[in-house]
Amino acid sequence: MEIKIDDLSDVEVIKLLDEHLSDMYATSPPESAHALDVNALKSPDITFFSGWLDGDLQGCLAIKQLTPHHVELKSMRTSNSSRKSGVATKLLTHALNVAIDKGYQKVSLETGTHEYFRPARNLYEKFGFTYCDPFSDYKSDPHSYFMTRDLLEKFV
């Protein structure tokens, strides 16, 4: 799989992000859905990655700078055709290694509490993320879990 920094202009990427937003609003109340739309993901403090295999979009993931030492994971999504194929693991490994290369020391994320989000939480736990209090501008929310981990060494 080729993972690249994406400018969010490809129709397939936009379609995948639209599906992501639709699912977030279908599984969480609007005030608890923290997914970003395409325009928000174009912010200069966000690096957006897309993963491709033989010209087909497999998934996406972004890192958002919160401070010079702390980033947040945003918009983790795999295509329906590539679920359970290791795409999310590859994207997460790549994004975390890029964050380490850029000198970040900590990464955090927000994800949902519903069963729909269980596979994502399992992946984050596998990568050593632990549950934490809300960070940045987040507030406690019964529909949100917050997770974090230090970035100490590269992932393989």
Automatic annotation (TrEMBL):
Q: Which residues form the N-acetyltransferase domain?
A: 3-152
Report keywords, A-Z. Answer: Acyltransferase, Transferase
Acyltransferase recorded as keyword: yes
CDD domains in the cross-refs:
NAT_SF
Pfam families, alphabetized: Acetyltransf_1
- PROSITE patterns listed in its UniProt record: GNAT
Quote the protein name from its UniProt record.
Answer: GNAT family N-acetyltransferase
Organism expressing this protein natively = Vibrio porteresiae DSM 19223
Specify the taxonomic lineage: Bacteria, Pseudomonadati, Pseudomonadota, Gammaproteobacteria, Vibrionales
